[in-house]
Specification:
The complex is a heterodimer of chains A (about 300) and B (about 475). With about 300 residues, chain A is α/β, with parallel strands linked by helices. Chain A folds into 2 domains: about 180 residues, Rossmann fold (3-Layer(aba) Sandwich), CATH 3.40.50; about 90 residues, no CATH class. In chain A, about 30% of the residues lie in helices and about 15% in strands. A 6-stranded mixed sheet of chain A has the order 3-2-1-4-6-5, with helices on both faces. Chain A has a 4-stranded antiparallel sheet with strand order 8-7-9-10, with no helix packed on it. In chain A, helix 1 crosses helix 2 and helix 6 packs antiparallel against helix 7. With about 475 residues, chain B is of the alpha+beta class. Chain B folds into 3 domains: about 230 residues, Rossmann fold (3-Layer(aba) Sandwich), CATH 3.40.50.300; about 90 residues, Beta Barrel (Elongation Factor Tu (Ef-tu), domain 3), CATH 2.40.30.10; about 110 residues, Translation factors (Elongation Factor Tu (Ef-tu), domain 3), CATH 2.40.30. Chain B is globular. Chain B starts with 12 loop residues before the first strand and ends in a 10-residue tail after the last strand. The chains are: A alpha/beta (about 300), B alpha+beta (about 475). The structure holds guanosine-5'-diphosphate and magnesium ion. Magnesium ion binds next to helix 1 of chain B.
Chain lengths: ~300, ~475
């Protein structure tokens, strides 16, 4: 066993990739593997920072060629207008095809019902799965990270989905070295998570280093907000305060940008990405704990949604 | 009141130089490198608790996570009247895991110290989920194997150490855990080391670092214990901060090897703003450097075909660079045009292995369908997937004696040796020299399941030929 241990005196590599370069290289390798081995990949693109980073990595992976797959947005109808504007601009700049699966359409057609709490995150699953089936997509890139949630922490980089889009966490395919096995039966598809191993801090440091444009919401701005469930909620058409919730103007930013009706802002004075990096590095709360009302409901909220085919 | 994001955890401050310091560490230090490690050992030996302890003591647990753990610990009466934190809850993330109090699949966790960033794979101990432990260990630079000080070396300890030996994990740490439950006894510790020595000698594990720890109470994990004065070696975290990562060991010392993932020929679909004339004939071979390094101007050889050519350019997403090294993802431009496809390998001249149609392999068999001679499979090595047949099954490791015994069948969780015949020649390397060159998957052709983790060792298997 020649190399099983480093012998004393053996020379260590002079070249050593730093953390961000290691993560970037791993992600580009994964994106290229999926494009090489699948017929019809698609990237879930919401305009949120994680999907923006995946798109940036995809652009790097195929330079000087264009990103060789379309992007898909599951639009809850509760998105921040700034994010939709950013989404459209980004897609146009890169010359990509955008498909939109609209939750509002499903509600209008009576296929989905609005929930009593008004949250639309759980309603995304059906439009997502139908968009995958109709588009005949066999690989779906997502920007999920394992540090986001305990259920996500268990997911493979290439994760199989059955015909119903379900994730079976008790029976995941082994994943060995950097050899990704994406073979699947007709009807099944694969979710691919190139930034699985990135933390929130890695994402922000990479955005800073690469000078990646984000929707303006991610930086501190003044906004009319009120306090609910220990979060600052924006005043908006789908997030109106009740009579006894006091509206005030505060300097806030968002750590995630999702459904306006359940995404909270944090008070912040971070006007530059480098300020955000410092805030994130010093933060005492996880990203979801701080800003997602729907994930606070139960310890296994995410696992339950994922089993049904959620992102 | 809602959270202000700028509230820093206790002990965090911005120092005079403007660096943010958390838990005594400059967590934004640019030179930080990455170490991937996994936990292993039998059920209940304390893997998840150790992970929780590492996260907790390195101040990587955020308030809301800690509150959730405290709440659940209290509901279950953990630590009795006094209360306490069941740190295993930090990683056991699936509903079934929390209900049954076991780990089913690998949980990946992330934390940093002043020296390094870590990706930690908390693996299950139960024999039924050994395939998940193999998943967690395959990419690991180091594995921490836990042993319960009251129980010593168990069958699962031997199984996991066999996996670690099979995968050639370069750094092995054995944590003799629950040392608090044996009164911090040195003699119990040395007795376990004696048991361990027989095992590691049999498996050919040359160098193993042993540490007495209490994952629950924190002795010798991050903080040095005052209750084990007879132990003078490093703590778990000190080892993890200093052990070399695989790429440090393999990168420069090995010849350049580059499996081609795909060919970038943008033609019509060029990035907006680029000059179409300039890129009309662009042809980049995209891949990740598997080992060694390459400079513009270097001569290389290409297989299949045995062509020789020169590297005229290295692109990293629009930036031309001079040198690329493992594990960078880049695109190479070559002086001559070849009809290369995915699966081709570019390497330093005279170093690429001769493509072969026969592999003598060590395997970890992951599937409940056994391997028998004549089984038709697919072999995925690097960026190539080819049809193959298991032409013979040679031996399997007996986990009691650790000897390799003759057999003609490999069952789930067996470590064994086989000969594979491939339909197409593959330039597979020797895993002992370079993991990315010699590792492969065995895949079920119909349903696509991964049947085995394979390792090419070029061994001749004479010792246990029967
Ligand atoms: N006294 C004591 N108990 C421990 C120690 N480490 C773990 N345990 C307990 O052993 C049990 C199993 O631990 P766990 O981390 O779930 O084991 P795993 O199955 O290897 O992940 C739990 O009840 C832990 O609290 C230790 O160092 N000392
Ligand atoms: Mg466990």
């Amino acid at each position: 066993m020649s190399k099983s241990n480093l012998k004393s005196g053996q020379k260590l590599a002079e070249h050593r990739l730093g953390l961000l370069d290691t993560l970037e290289s791993e992600a580009i390798h994964i994106i290229r593997e999926v494009v090489a081995e699948f017929e019809r990949p698609v990237l879930l693109f919401s305009g949120g920072k994680d999907s923006v980073v995946v798109l940036h990595l995809a652009a790097k992976a195929f330079w000087p060629g264009k990103v060789p797959f379309p992007v898909l947005h599951v639009d809850t109808g509760h998105n921040f207008p700034e994010v939709i504007e950013f989404r459209d601009r980004t897609v146009e700049k890169l010359g990509l095809r955008l498909e939109v699966a609209s939750v509002q359409d499903y509600i209008d057609r009576g296929v989905l019902q609005e929930r009593p709490d008004g949250t639309r995150n759980p309603l995304q699953t059906l439009p997502l799965l139908e968009a995958i089936t109709n588009g005949k997509f066999d690989a779906v890139f997502g920007g999920a990270r394992r540090d986001e949630d305990k259920a996500r922490a268990k997911e493979r980089i290439l994760s199989m989905r059955d015909e119903f889009g379900q994730w079976d966490p008790r029976n995941q395919r082994p994943e060995l070295w950097n050899l990704y096995n994406g073979r699947h039966l007709p009807g099944q598809h694969v979710r691919a998570f190139p930034i699985s191993n990135w933390t929130e801090l890695d994402i922000w440091r990479y955005i800073e280093r690469e000078n990646i444009e984000l929707p303006p919401l991610y930086l501190a701005h003044e906004r009319e907000v009120y306090s609910r469930d220990g979060m600052w909620r924006a005043v908006g058409p789908v997030s109106m305060p009740t009579a006894d919730e006091v509206v005030e103007t505060r300097l806030v930013r968002y750590r995630t940008v999702g459904d306006m009706s359940c995404t909270g802002a944090v008070e912040s004075s971070a006007v530059l990405i480098s300020d955000v990096v410092l805030e994130v590095a010093g933060s005492t709360l996880t990203e979801r704990g701080a800003t997602r009302a729907d994930d606070r409901i139960s310890e296994a909220a995410m696992e339950d949604r994922k089993k049904e085919g959620y992102f | 009141m809602p959270q202000t994001s700028s509230q820093a955890p206790a002990g965090a401050f911005v120092d005079a130089a403007g660096t943010l310091v958390v838990g005594g560490a400059d967590i934004l230090k640019q030179s930080r490198t990455l170490l991937r490690f996994a936990t292993a050992g039998s059920v209940d030996d304390g893997k998840s608790t150790l992970v929780g302890r590492l996260l907790h003591d390195s101040k990587s647990v955020l308030i809301d996570q800690l509150e959730a753990v405290a709440r659940t610990s209290a509901e279950r009466g953990f630590g009795g009247e006094a209360g306490g934190l069941d740190l295993a809850l930090l990683t056991d993330g699936l509903r079934a895991e929390r209900e049954q109090g076991i780990t089913i699949d690998v949980a990946y966790r992330y934390f940093s110290t002043a020296e390094r960033s870590f990706i930690l794979a908390d693996c299950p101990g139960h024999v039924q989920y050994t395939r998940n432990m193999v998943t967690g260990s395959a990419t690991a630079d180091a594995v921490v194997v836990l042993i319960d000080a009251r129980k010593g070396v168990l069958e699962q300890t031997r199984r996991h150490l066999s996996v670690v030996a099979l995968l050639r994990v370069p750094n092995v740490i054995v944590a003799v855990n629950k040392i608090d439950l044996v009164d911090f006894s040195e003699s119990v510790y040395t007795e376990i080391l004696d048991q361990l020595r027989t095992v590691t000698a049999e498996l050919g594990l040359e160098q193993v670092h042993a540490i007495p720890v209490s994952a629950l109470e924190g002795d010798n994990v991050v903080e040095r214990s005052t209750r084990t004065p007879w132990y003078t070696g490093p703590t778990v975290i000190e080892l993890l901060e200093t052990l070399p990562a695989i790429d440090e060991i393999e990168s420069d010392n090995d010849p350049f090897r580059f499996p081609v993932q795909l060919i970038i020929r943008p033609q019509g679909g060029l990035v907006a703003g680029l000059n179409a004339d300039e890129f009309r004939d662009y042809r980049g071979y995209a891949g990740q450097v598997a080992s060694g390094s390459i400079k513009v101007g270097d001569e290389v050889e290409v297989t299949p075909g045995n062509f020789k050519t020169k590297v005229v350019g290295i692109d990293l997403a629009g930036k031309a660079i001079d040198t690329a090294f493992a594990p960078q993802s880049v695109s190479l431009r070559l002086a001559d045009e070849f009809d290369l496809a995915r699966g081709a390998v570019i390497g330093a001249v005279g170093t690429l292995p001769e493509p072969t149609t026969e592999i003598h392999a060590e395997l970890f068999w992951l599937d409940s369908r056994s391997a028998v001679p004549g089984t038709r499979v697919l072999v995925k090595a690097g960026t190539q997937t080819v049809q193959a047949i298991i032409s013979s099954v040679i031996g399997r490791r007996n986990l009691d004696t650790l000897a390799i015994e003759g057999t003609d069948e490999l069952k789930v969780n067996d470590i064994g040796t086989v000969v594979l015949r491939l339909a197409t020649p593959v330039p597979i390397g020797d895993y002992n020299q370079n993991r990315r060159a010699g590792a492969f998957l065995i895949i079920q052709p119909q349903d696509g399941s991964t049947l085995a983790a394979g390792i090419n060792t070029n061994a001749q298997f004479d010792e246990f030929d029967i």
